[in-house]
Amino acid sequence: MVVMIEDETRTGKAPHIAVIGGGITGLSAAWQVQQSGDVRYTLLEQSGRWGGKIQTETLDLADVGRFVIEHGPDSVATTKPYAHQLADALGLETVGSNLEQRRIYLYDRERLTPLPDGMMLIIPTRFAPFALSPLISIPGKMRMALEPFIPAKDDGQDESLDTFVRRRLGREAVDKLAEPLLSGIFNTDPEQQSVLATFPRFRTMEEKYGSLTQAILQAKAKKRGKAGKVNPFATFPAGMESLVDTVVGELTGDLRLNTGVDAVCRDCDGSYRLFLEDGSTLYADGVIFATPAAVTSRLLWLLAPKAVEIINAIPYTTTGTVTLAYPVDALSRPLDGHGVVIPRKAERRINAITWSSSKFAGRAPAGYALMRVFFGGSRSPQTAQLDDAAVLDVVRDELHTIMGVTAEPLFTRTSRWPQAIPQYVVGHGDKMDALDKLLPDGVQLAGSAYRGASVPDCIRSGRTAADKALAAVGQVVKA
User: Fold this and answer.
1) Engineering a disulfide at 21: which of 86, 290, 409, 451 sits with its beta carbon 3.0 to 4.6 angstroms away?
2) Arithmetic mean of pLDDT, 122-138
3) Using CA atoms, how far apart are residues 327 and 413, in angstroms rounded to an integer?
4) Torsion angle in degrees (nearest 10) through CA of 333, 176, 420, 464
């Protein structure tokens, strides 16, 4: 069987772009291609659902109410505008996190200690709360106070997050702040994590202002007098999958679920031929690979074998979450914040706890609490190797130790993401620059493996790949 689009493409009609992968990256790419108005596209997804790791479950319990459970990401960072830009274009409402309970606790010396008020990133901007906090020792505070006097690194070379923070703020700032707060986002080892690939703004701040402290103070001065607080997180009233559903509802191209790709090759005329798992063939003028790195490397080897070597060298880790619900009165302490981060040196079997019902409104009925426990990655890989029953036992034991939770949960949900989190090690950016140069004309790579792993990063990646693919086929997005 040969699909009709083969004939249309090869007879010189409107250009055609194939997008492989129906997660938020591929959906964003397809949406961006559609904006050109003059290019046809086909979106191929191997599984039976759109959205990839974005997956929301709504659970209605009789006599209790509705719970909104996120199996993947629960929000988007507002410091990166790309998700908000897409939501605005779609007319989709967002809701911010609870600013009245934005406190974050750190599990330190077998107790929960709140991060001092006024912390921006890992820099204190208010003297009194930081000075009075028991979180950092007096010698550690003195070392952090020297940060404005540390010479700036301006050679443009990459370094690990551990090296960067230790150089500017000291060892204790790494252990108590950077490792649980920043490396925890990427589930990586701070001694391996590339600062340029994960937190490039740190180096920009250092180079421009000479110190992180001075950069933060300058930013505060510019915002002084402006009304309202900046909300760091946002989501959607019905959950993150609302974004997926809304994008899919707007797409008018050829959308195919349960459609895998066996191989991709290039024909003599420069077009691309996709061999689909159902035995059919699809021709395209350009191809966007919005698939996980392992899938991309398998499909790309006929086109760019040297590029495959770079992709295969990107390390990945396995992560998972357990969501648990409780009556509020069954908990021994109030959930008066967004959750708990756990330093590696605490040697716990979980990584962090999000108090979902406190972080966002509408996640649990009144009188009930919803929390989410993270495990796996480079910080607790042993937990990810257990079966679901054993993981639940570990999680409940850790909740008892860390928060004093002894009650039976109302329900639980366990989610696993095998080899799903890319690790941006030192030098990652240079490798991605080299990767771009190895791709044939008309081929674009997009997704979390390359230049940002968050949902906004993936949206930006998909739309950027689409713009480049459109340029390659001689089209642009119409204003």
Assistant:
1) 290
2) 90
3) 16
4) 110
Eight-class DSSP state of 173: H
* Closest C-alpha among 394, 432, 428, 424 to residue 412: 394
- How many CA atoms are closer than 13 Å to the CA of 225, on its beta-carbon side? 2
Least Cα distance to 365 among 403, 322, 330, 325 occurs for 325
**SS3 label, residue 235:** strand
pLDDT digits (tens, 9 = 90+) for 226-247: 555 678 899 999 999 999 999 9
Distance CA 139, CA 8 (A): 71
Q: Which tokens sit at 158?
A: 């990459």
Q: What is the CA radius of gyration of the chain?
A: 24
CB of 378 closer than 8 Å to CB of 189? yes
Which residue in 450, 350, 476 sits closest to 25, CA to CA? Answer: 450
Per-residue pLDDT tens over the stretch 314-343: 999 999 999 999 999 999 999 999 999 999
Contact status, residue 406 vs residue 326, Cβ threshold 8 Å: no
Give the strand order in the sheet containing 16-20. Answer: 254-256, 40-44, 16-20, 286-289, 443-445
Residues in the chain: 479
Distance between CA atoms of 30 and 446, rounded to whole angstroms? 12
Alpha carbon 191 to chain centroid, angstroms: 20
Place 11 in a pLDDT band, splitting at 50, 70 and 90: very low
Name the CA dihedral angle for 19, 25, 29, 30, rounded to a multiple of 10 degrees.
60
- Other Cβ atoms closer than 10 A to 446: 31
**Pairing mode, strands 316-327 and 411-422:** antiparallel
**CA angle, residues 325, 331, 335, in degrees to nearest 5:** 80
Rounded CA separation 169/370 (Å): 35
Q: Is the dihedral of CA 184, 186, 188, 193 positive or negative?
A: negative
Q: How far apart are CA 185 and CA 454, in angstroms?
A: 9
pLDDT of residue 3: 39
Q: How many helices (H) and strands (E) does the chain have?
A: 19, 22
Query: Which residues face 415 on adjacent strands?
Result: 321
Task: Dump pLDDT digits (tens) for 23-41.
Answer: 999 999 999 999 998 899 9
CB burial string 219-258: b at 16+ within 10 A, e below: eeeeeeeeeeeeeebbbbebbbbbbbbbbbeebebbbbee
Q: What CA–CA distance (Å, rounded) separates 352 from 339?
A: 8
pLDDT digits (tens, 9 = 90+) for 379-423: 899 999 999 999 999 999 999 999 999 999 999 999 999 999 999
Query: What per-residue confidence (pLDDT) applies to 477?
Result: 66
Rounded alpha-carbon distances, angstroms, from residue 57 to 74, 75, 95, 150, 268: 11, 14, 18, 48, 47
